[in-house]
TrEMBL record:
<dbReference type="GO" id="GO:0008270">
    <property type="term" value="F:zinc ion binding"/>
</dbReference>
<comment type="similarity">
    <text>Belongs to the peptidase M14 family.</text>
</comment>
<dbReference type="Pfam" id="PF10994">
    <property type="entry name" value="DUF2817"/>
</dbReference>
<feature type="domain" description="Peptidase M14">
    <location>
        <begin position="34"/>
        <end position="310"/>
    </location>
</feature>
<protein>
    <submittedName>
        <fullName>Peptidase</fullName>
    </submittedName>
</protein>
<dbReference type="GO" id="GO:0006508">
    <property type="term" value="P:proteolysis"/>
</dbReference>
<dbReference type="InterPro" id="IPR021259">
    <property type="entry name" value="DUF2817"/>
</dbReference>
<dbReference type="GO" id="GO:0004181">
    <property type="term" value="F:metallocarboxypeptidase activity"/>
</dbReference>
<dbReference type="InterPro" id="IPR000834">
    <property type="entry name" value="Peptidase_M14"/>
</dbReference>
Amino acid sequence: MSKIDRPEVAYPVGVPGTPWGDTEKTQWYTMQAIKRSYQEEVLSKIEQLSEAWQVEQYGALSYDPSRYPLFVLRSKNWQSNLPVALITGGVHGYETSGVQGALFFLQHFAQNYDGKVNLVVAPCLSPWGYETINRWNPKAVDPNRSFIFGAPSEETQAIMHYLKDNHIAPLVHVDLHETTDTDNSEFRPALAARDGVTHDNWDIPDGFYLVGDTKRSEDAFQKAIIDSVAKITHIAPADQNGNIIGDKVVQHGVIEYDCKKAGLCAGMTDAQYVTTTEVYPDSPKTDPQNCMEAQAAAITGALNFVLADS
């Protein structure tokens, strides 16, 4: 278990203990900068996949519509009698393997499920966040607390309306995330500053773990994913209190949240089988390739379980 003993210090925006207003949020936004290319690292790969997959644009971010179009890739051999699996990545743009892992799965494994399951893959829900390596959107809103219709996040509203308008009701949904050391160095301090609070839990788990849904636990499903990922990378142990990031471990490598209540991506549909992956890219035991492979193993573990169970 990795832990950064980080004393509470003043964040460079706002006054400690006072929630941000529009002025502070604008100041935070002006501090952000483009650090990598959505076009080169994501859109170019989607283009390469366009012959094998049905690529559909479901929106564009108003911050810069030409720079930030939003795409899903769907099975070309769509069959109405097959179950539907939804894969989402890049809800938090800075979590690189969520985006690249979804694309890696499409490149190397998805063809194995042709004719067995209808796939809908949205590899990068937050392209501005991807380019600026950010958790929030430009309005200092966390998309992964905003999967509720009417929430102030274009990123979440676009994909939710796409699924609703196209009557896509998945049986399984795998949402790809990371827990990183920058959660402690930047994102938790920013959250505390934005909301005018303090944070006491600075634990970062060393390894992969899952977040299930308290209302749709499906323990065997979660275990199948953990078993699949364990062949690729190490699973995070519980801490001395039996927790991971402050939440009780319900089985090896798995904690649970009420996803719909929290507005999480995993709660945006009524899928029976839902999970959120959490890769730890800062471990000395991993590298970017291993992280992408772990995300792909989570997806294949989920699909294999559901297909065997159906």
